[in-house]
Amino acid sequence: MTLLSVRDLTVKFGTRGTPVTALHGISFDVARGERVGVVGESGAGKSITGFALMNLLSRPGYIDSGEILFEGKDVTKMSDREIRRLRGNRMAMIFQDPMVTLNPVLTIGQQMIETLRAHRRLSYDDARQISLVKLKEVYIPSPEARLDQYPHELSGGMRQRIVIAIALLLDPQLIIADEPTTALDVTIQADIMELLLEMCRSNMVGLMLITHDLGVVSQVTERTLVMYAGRIIESGKTRAIINDPQHPYTQGLINALPQQTPPGTRLRQIPGSMPTLSTMPPGCPFNPRCELATDVCRARMPEITQFGEVQVACHEVKRLHAELAELEGAQ
């Protein structure tokens, strides 16, 4: 059953001249309890997608067109009061840096209790008790003592666990996690991702994991969206994309993983860099960096096409599949 349905979502940023487009008509679905990864380099549009879903875009950014249907209701048409009821209650977001998420002048308990009482009619004692239960669920040691501490008194890993506990306070149906382990040590990262996965499975919560790390995506998510320059260029089951990437950009991301490079050799990387919003090339936005680019790629934007378990936007992939189908037909 579909929980979230995004259709032709376009996000723009106003400038002194012509507005620039950050998201170009993206469409995807998230089912109840499904774990979806959103991957790509910095500037691909991953975080903008998350902010747009929560209706957290601030000027000069704005949703220009499209629908964001959450449980059948269009988020883009909700009033401020309806949005406040939705955020934290039915949809929650985990941000990159817990020190930015948590208020440094309030204790952990104050922040959790205020969150609960803003959405539920609860007494102070009941809200505190629920907060203790959630801290225990994310394996916070001595939760009673932690409620009376300030964020700066806790380690980075513990702060991120508390942010996850706050996200789960009101039993949301969807969590959007924006690079939730970026500021943490590698060993702590693994613990946090395992915790998120466990929480989503046990509570049947949908998860959108925004990250640049395909290794994390392969371990946590069931389906993956690969983004480039504000577009979804490949999507499908995570295992299918990891094992047999179709788009040259996805292939480049996987080849750039350290484990893909033999010891003692230079790490492989995709040449060039992501285009800026104001200097988008004509045709396929990846064509200046693509070894397979042809004149068609430089002139015309590729359409999303279904190939087996994945959808891909690439002229060359479409041509290769057409040639393969021709050969199979001839035999």
Automatic annotation (TrEMBL):
It is found in: Cell inner membrane. It comes from the Bacteria. Residues 4-254 form the ABC transporter domain. It holds the Pfam family oligo_HPY. GO terms for molecular function: ATP binding; ATP hydrolysis activity. Keywords: ATP-binding, Cell membrane, Membrane, Nucleotide-binding, Transport. Its main location: membrane. GO terms for biological process: peptide transport; transmembrane transport. It is a peripheral membrane protein. GO terms for cellular component: plasma membrane. Belongs to the ABC transporter superfamily. This is Peptide/nickel transport system ATP-binding protein.
